[in-house]
User: Fold Glycoside hydrolase family 13 protein from Plantactinospora solaniradicis.
Amino acid sequence: SERPRWWRDAVIYQVYPRSFADANGDGIGDIAGIRKRLGYLSELGVDAIWFGPWYPSPMADAGYDVADFRAIEPVFGTLAEVEELITEAHGQGLRIIADLVPNHCSDQHPWFQAALAGGPGAPERDLFWFRPGRGPDGDQPPTDWIGEFGGGTWTRTTNPDGTAGDWYLHLFAAQQPDFNWDHPKVRAEFEDIVRFWLDRGVDGIRIDSAALLLKDATLPEVVADAPHPFHDLDGVHEIYRSWRRIADSYPEPRALIGEVWLPDRQRFANYLRPDEMHTAFNFDFLSCAWDAAALRESIDGTLAEHASIDAPATWVLSNHDVTRVVTRYGRADTTFSFASKREGTYTDLELGTVRARAAALLSLSLPGAAYVYQGEELGLWEVEDIPPALRQDPMFPRSGFVDPGRDGCRVPLPWSGDAAPFGFSPDNATAAPWLPQPAAWKDQTVQTQTSDPHSMLELYRQAIRIRRELPALGDGTLHWLPAPDGVLAFTREPGFACVVNLSDTPVPIPPHQHKLLASRPVDGDLLPPDTAVWLRM
Ligand code: TEU
Ligand code: CA
Assistant:
């Protein structure tokens, strides 16, 4: 019989474990906290939950530096608790997606520790990228590559006898050595790790930095118009083909979900061929400014590319790496940038919220699967005034301004009450939340929003409920309606339309039977600026 392809039209909620809910009061989110709040997620109506990395980690990069791929970080809980979480979630009809980080590990991982301790010639060095430095004293890095966090990509080691040694490669922080994916032992290890988590019942695996795994072993410098030495090498697809064979060997459907940041849509789609990943995050959509023409171009390009290989599209507005959507859309210039703070720019959070509400209705009515990053449904904004001493993200200063990093979108959720920790931690907590919550979040809590029919939370709840009830929504196709400049209007069959007004004047709403949902109150048949409406046609 046909296996359900749940990833094609799912609403997938991203839980950032450190910041979701803290049950034991140490100020850090944990598995027990998540289990207590599962009811919230099933009430929200999502189909699946993706958990950020839950593995033992020194937390140099918030858990993306993994010391043991088959265990749970003790601060979060135990493997037994995660197994119970999976069972409970399945009992509530929620699917579970685990985050896997195959490009690199923590410098505390036993393989890397053995590579250092064994000195030059240690066999474990072949599992990573150890190379002598350049220059007569070897004190220059092997290449001048710029890493994904903006700094250099090589760190020099000290030999066991105290002399200066070889350098090792890290595309991210120095505490995240890159694996050598040309080595069969690395491949075998990760095939085993994929099986380990699928055996524990996870329904999907999110693959971190999926396009970066292979490197050109001749280590050329990055040159414009030449093949890139570590982005999207052709051989990387063989790795995902082998994982797909593993995923397909399970009786229940399992999904591979790629984190593939590639500007070229064709190269991106290569990862979604029928024998590779099932789906991947659409960063093209996330990167769009609040601009009808840009969004339409992104939607059309995405749908055309995905249709040609029968892969489901995905719609992503935010995640734990980017400035929160309310803040992005509240700026005078809504062009995407990784950096949160921009010197001299003023952010209108009210405007940003109005737009984020419209964007929610847009992303939840496009064909394919939609992602919701925790707190997006509460209208949380980027916390830009975290004191430098409390910031934890390893990102480097970038050119032109100092990038404060990604902490501002990772602040613990406000659940209830009038003051921090807003129910994130229990009343008898022994520590404050690991990042400070703004006092103004008293108006953003789950509790306050639950009783307010005009809240962001109720908008998400209603939209997801309608999406579940209407066969027109989810997977399928879309047809554009004629619309004035600055307006996106499309139908989904049968009998559904979405209209989003991104212009600065009200526009007429097309003829319809009734309004299903609007991102803010709409009187009569004029749609105000920065507003979206769902129509029964
Ligand atoms: O991000 C991978 C990635 O592509 C980053 O370069 C991203 O662009 C960066 O956050 C902004 O410059 C993944 C994770 O989502 C991220 O949280 C990790 O820090 C990173 O991998 C390393 O594991
Ligand atoms: Ca805790």
In short: The radius of gyration is 23 Å. The chain has a mean pLDDT of 95. Residues 127 and 184 are 9 Å apart (CA to CA). The longest strand covers residues 95-100.
